[in-house]
């Protein structure tokens, strides 16, 4: 773990049965020459003692928001400014709920609310608590605020039940943080652009032609790029989705607007075209609403291909151009044709004839076709995990 040296880690330990594991996390960070300060919540002290934390971390332990000595030495704002990252481990359902509400009722929540640093959250709880819709909703909110979630894992729990909710092992957590610093160092100067969602092509002021794209995969890719350090711009057609506040979001409606926004945001290092851009627009849009009694004749004309345009303009071609293909038949043949016709480095294809994946689903299964004739299948999983796998391959190639 080469990238942890001299990193300042603010570890927040909450009150859960896995709190004892954070002592092992501290030991690994210390071994890798990190500087550690720790906040223990009130209930964490029921599970581990401040003395054991101090002995292992050789750094200060904080536990009280209104402590005169701490506030003069390092107040709660300076504490969050001091850290390179904040790691919350274990993060209980209660803490997750407080953070989603923006609570500042104790030192831990106040420091987090005041923080401008990356926050890593390591949930640990009973499987039913993890699966409860309110926990899911809280995590959705925290994801929107760019919290990076590590785990939980599937396994047997302290309460004797089996399922998802077990805290990720300390070594794996430390590896994730090390990987984060490694990518950050390399990617900080790199720009990425993602197109996502459908486009609307207007017939008259109230009617338009569109498609079934939800934009979910593109939004998750933007999220993964951002958390890997890329300066990320997301150009999105109409969707119901939200994105992290640190990602630049440009909302468009038509293919023409998407094209202009893309052009305006070049050059970039990596461009990923996941939008389902309408191939056609209305040749002559009606300026007023068409009435039932009117005779309606719609003539279509081709939209400009944004991906094709970007990948064939040498002066601004990104180092890595990735296209998407949604296919129902002749999948490999069509994908390879798109790869060469659109001059892409990769084409990522999903088979949209399969109901449980693709368009509105949270799951996806894709094949990446590379320029060098190789292909790779990413098996069925959550779209956010597919994105992490795609971005890890981007990291590998671009660095
Ligand atoms: N694309 C684009 N601009 C367009 C049409 C498509 O940028 N006007 C991009 C998509 O974002 C995707 C890739 O091109 O990355 C392939 O899109 P797809 O709709 O699968 O292919 P088409 O080129 O439109 O061909 P067809 O619909 O005939 O399969």
Shape: elongated
Strand content: 25-35%
Q: Which class of secondary structure composition applies to the elements?
A: alpha/beta
CATH class of the largest domain: Alpha Beta
* Amino-to-carboxy terminus distance: 18 Å
Uncertain spans: none
Bound ions, cofactors and other small molecules, one mention each = cytidine-5'-triphosphate
Provide the CATH architecture of the largest domain: 3-Layer(aba) Sandwich
Query: How many helix segments?
Result: 14
Describe the structure in your own words.
By secondary structure, the protein is α/β, with parallel strands linked by helices. It is 35% helix and 25% strand. It has 14 helices and 20 strands. The strands form 5 sheets. An 8-stranded mixed beta sheet has the order 13-12-9-14-17-18-19-20, sandwiched between helices. It has a 6-stranded parallel beta sheet with strand order 3-2-1-4-5-6, with helices on both faces. Strand 19 and strand 20 (375-382) form a beta hairpin. Helix 5 (93-101) packs across helix 8 and helix 10 (216-227) packs across helix 14. The model has no long low-confidence stretch (mean pLDDT 93). The site of cytidine-5'-triphosphate has 15 residues, from helix 12 and strand 17.
